[in-house]
Amino acid sequence: MLSLDEIGAGTRVTHKNTGLRYSVVDLGDDEVLLAPESSDLQDLVVPITLFREEFIASDRYSAGRSRGPRRPGAAPSGPPRVATGPKSRGRIKKMVRERGFGFIRGEDGKEVFFHRSGLNGGEYDTLSEGDVVEYVVQEGPRGPRAEGVRAAVPEPA
Question: Which of 56, 81, 95, 97 lies at a C-alpha separation of 20 to 30 Å from 120?
Answer without folding.
Answer: 56
